[in-house]
Amino acid sequence: MIRATARRRRAWGASALLAVLAFTPARDGLEAGMGLHMLVQFPLLALAGWLFAGALPPRWRERAAAWNAHGITGLLFVALAMALLMIPRLLDLAVADMRIDAGKMIALVLAGAALQLSWTCAGKLVQGFFLGNVLPMTAAVGQLFQDSPLRLCNAYLLDDQERVGMALVALALLAGAAWLANLMRMVARERDPQVLPGA
């Protein structure tokens, strides 16, 4: 159980991070390049949501668990949010319209919170199903960014689009490999507790 002092620290950390990200100079700077927009701002906003959810008191987490059995509802929201936010047209609108940008930021914070509340309770089967859908989608978008001869985001250059595409494919592969390695480690530990040091 997380202590109250640790929860307060997480809440303050999340609030400070979100304040910096929402502040105009930082927001404009991160949205000036496609790589910074998708690969830095997106994860940092999700991290703020993760920290906020980690700061929730136990009774609030229990209420959230009532509609999030096995983490399915939360992970479904995360998958839908990621699918929408990787649409190139939405990136353009977020840069041009502050209302869309605010909605994007809220969605990412909520996705980070949902992931924090859902990942552990999901178990390996649900986690695998989630990653088996999200990671191929991410890699497919990344490949599309690389292969398209045209700019899919009018706000960004074609070279920037290609670099982001390569990064998305790499991240999808690394995330899948890391999850599988962790799964194999757990299986090995369950079969023979002496196989791994410190088990």
Summarize it.
With 199 residues, this protein is mainly alpha-helical.
Report on the structure:
The chain is mostly helical and 199 residues long. It is 82% helix and 0% strand. Helix 3 (34-54) runs parallel beside helix 8. The protein is globular. Mean pLDDT is 90; it is low at 195-199.
Give the SSE map.
Blueprint: H1 4-22, H2 24-30, H3 34-54, H4 58-66, H5 72-85, H6 88-96, H7 98-147, H8 158-191
Total number of helical segments? 8
Report Rg: 18 Å
Count all strands and give the number.
0
Low-pLDDT residue intervals, each spanning 5 or more residues: 195-199
Distance between the termini: 22 Å
Which structural class do the helices and strands define? mainly alpha
Amount of helix? over 70%
Pattern of helices and strands: HHHHHHHH
Would you tell me the overall average pLDDT? 90
Which range does the strand content fall in?
A: under 5%
Instruction: Please state the overall shape, judged from the principal axes of the Cα atoms.
Output: globular
Question: Strand count, sense and closure of the main sheet?
Answer: none
Which properties best describe this structure?
199 residues, 8 helices, disordered C terminus, globular, mainly alpha
